[in-house]
Amino acid sequence: MKTKDYVWLIVIIAIVGTAVWVIFNPDYPIRPGLDLQGGLQVLLEADLPPEEEISAEQMQTTRQIISRRIDGLGVSEPLVQSGGERRIVIELPGLTDREEAISLVQQTALLEFVDTGFQSLPEGMCIRTSENRGEPSPCEIEMPQGATEPPSFETILTGANLVEATVQSDPLGSQNMVAFTLDEEGGLIFGDYTANNVGQFLTIVLDKRVVSSPRIQAIIQREGSITGDFTLEEAQTLALQLRYGSLPIPLRVEGVRQVGASLGAQSITASIQAGAIGLLVVLVFMLTYYRLPGGLADLALIVYALLSFAAFQLLGVTITLPAITGFLLSTGMAVDANILVFERMKEELRRGETVDEAVRLGFDRAWTSIRDSNVATLVVCMILLLFGRSFGASMVQGFAWTLMIGVSVSMFTAVVVTRTFMTMIVVQFADFFESKKWILGV
């Protein structure tokens, strides 16, 4: 056996050990979705006269802002989607406090331009400012108390003085920037402030959290630009935060209702039992039909399950019924990859190839089929993720995430783990199996 085979064996043992540690680590818990643990459903409607027109962009932006607020709470796989032209439906798994849900989706975000002097503050940092709207923001509540509190900075302008913010690029198209326009009052304040603070930093803050901290390079009155090493997506996000720091349309709560776990405890138990029985049947079939290679594939399949669950917990994937379906589908693909290899190997043995050569050819010739099928599945997963992000179909995203992770892990276990096991046992003792090919399923 070659040195690289021992190296791969050590790598596999290390990865499996890490996966077991993640699975039993309380810092990486399993996150059940709304259909498994229940929660709250909130129905919002635009609080405007029926005759006043609401644009699709306003509704989409409102949905995005609310979604970002909920993501900041750490709610497991929230569902925020449009419910017609004037309504937004929100589902909050695991949340039971009605007042918390209502305040979360109705609060008006506070956009501020803050004087931080010669300090460039990192993105995402939570700070205190001189602007006070009464209730503390979620960011302020999270801040440590006592001597470790960050200093307070002076607010120069708020989003109330901002008229427009758009993404632009320099004449060569090599640098993205965000151009903004202020109202007349804001222009007077900004012009006076920037004239006296060229070279210092003016930090943009949303709900007391730093969005960007650019340096003042010239006197800015009603029109200015924010430059930096922005990607196009980063510039678009910043423009969106500036343009709609607060909700573009007022909302009222039409209803809040408690949603029970749609599967229920008994159904969850039955689903787990069904999955375990199905997995056991697959393991027995592989062992019976393919014998020793099937048994090694069973070990690889157990490794696959451990790595997949560890990845779900490590990446914070929310486990819903569609997510479980994605995992089970990827499990079938993991078994299918091993079947392709073993059938190729059996064909080579029937043609008279030696055992070690048959194993090598089995993996080499099955690889293209495994690669193509898995890549095609990953492309579909990417499309589903984009679809779910665009239309708020978070359940579709859950299915796509678990399927994508499972397929990626299955490629590793089928090509690397199973091959290492086969090399260690079958190839290492090829002379013994030359006269006992029935053990190899032939």
Helical element count?
12
Helix percentage: 40-55%
Strand portion, in percent? 15-25%
Distance between the termini: 24 Å
Rg (C-alpha, Å): 29 Å
Shape: elongated
Largest sheet: 5 strands, mixed
Low-confidence stretches: none
Task: Sum this structure up briefly.
The chain has 442 residues and is an alpha+beta fold.
What does this structure look like?
- A hairpin with a 6-residue loop joins β8 (162-169) and β9 (176-182).
- α1 runs antiparallel to α11, α9 (321-350) runs antiparallel to α10 (355-391) and α10 (355-391) runs antiparallel to α11 (394-427).
- This protein has helices at residues 3-23, 34-37, 56-73, 98-106, 138-142, 184-195, 232-243, 264-314, 321-350, 355-391, 394-427, 430-434, and strands spanning 31-32, 39-46, 79-82, 87-93, 111-115, 128-129, 152-158, 162-169, 176-182, 202-206, 209-212, 223-230, 251-259, 318-319.
- It is 54% helix and 18% strand.
- The longest helix is centred in the middle third of the chain and has 51 residues, at 264-314.
- By secondary structure, the chain is of the alpha+beta class.
Any descriptors?
single chain; 442 residues; alpha+beta; five-stranded mixed β-sheet; 14 strands
Secondary-structure map with pairings?
Elements: H1 3-23, E1 31-32, H2 34-37, E2 39-46, H3 56-73, E3 79-82, E4 87-93, H4 98-106, E5 111-115, E6 128-129, H5 138-142, E7 152-158, E8 162-169, E9 176-182, H6 184-195, E10 202-206, E11 209-212, E12 223-230, H7 232-243, E13 251-259, H8 264-314, E14 318-319, H9 321-350, H10 355-391, H11 394-427, H12 430-434
Parallel strand pairs: 1-14, 6-7
Antiparallel strand pairs: 2-4, 2-13, 3-4, 5-7, 5-10, 8-9, 9-12, 10-11
